[in-house]
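Worked example 3 (structure in, sequence out).
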């Protein structure tokens, strides 16, 4: 059975992020962000050009799958729910049900996930990458769940040492 990994930027340093990928035998990162940047100097290493350069130097491939990113409107919906709950993006632990339903319907139902599966590396793993620390707080978990359900992939979440989950 094939495996797909997921990873978020928050909680990692550039070095620990690359080490987590190497340890898990990730050979290609599938960036599923709409905007390939992260606010704040702490995560400047995860901005597209720097990240692509670091991955290339580490011998890890990179592909941007913008078609799997939530729209700006969907992200705003999630931010409003975060504000209502009194949490920010970084400490978020779960997606808003309305966001998840819209993402499934408006993105995943229309996406060519078979192409993603066909393009999985023959050696090593692919890792769906976004920014949130916890997979349940990020749309990458919805992609992974769909791939598990429809294509029989096992999902492995790569978590930072500061993650709330074991």
């Amino acid at each position: 059975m094939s495996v797909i990994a997921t990873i978020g930027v928050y909680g990692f340093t550039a070095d620990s992020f690359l080490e987590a990928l190497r340890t898990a035998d990730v050979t290609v990162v599938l960036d599923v962000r709409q905007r390939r940047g992260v606010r704040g100097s702490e995560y400047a290493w995860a901005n597209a050009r720097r990240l692509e350069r670091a991955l290339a130097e580490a011998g890890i491939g990179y592909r941007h799958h913008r078609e799997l990113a939530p729209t700006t409107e969907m992200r705003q919906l999630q931010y409003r729910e975060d504000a209502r709950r009194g949490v920010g993006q970084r400490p978020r632990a779960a997606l808003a049900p309305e966001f998840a339903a819209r993402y499934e319907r408006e993105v995943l139902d229309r996406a060519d996930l078979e192409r993603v599966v066909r393009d999985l590396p023959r050696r090593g793993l692919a890792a769906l990458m976004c920014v949130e620390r916890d997979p349940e707080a990020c749309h990458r978990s919805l992609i992974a769940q769909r791939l598990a359900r429809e294509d029989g992939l096992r999902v492995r979440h790569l978590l930072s040492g500061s993650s709330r989950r074991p």
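Notes: Residues 72-85 form the longest helix (14 residues). The beta strands are 3-8, 26-31, 61-64, 125-130, 154-158.
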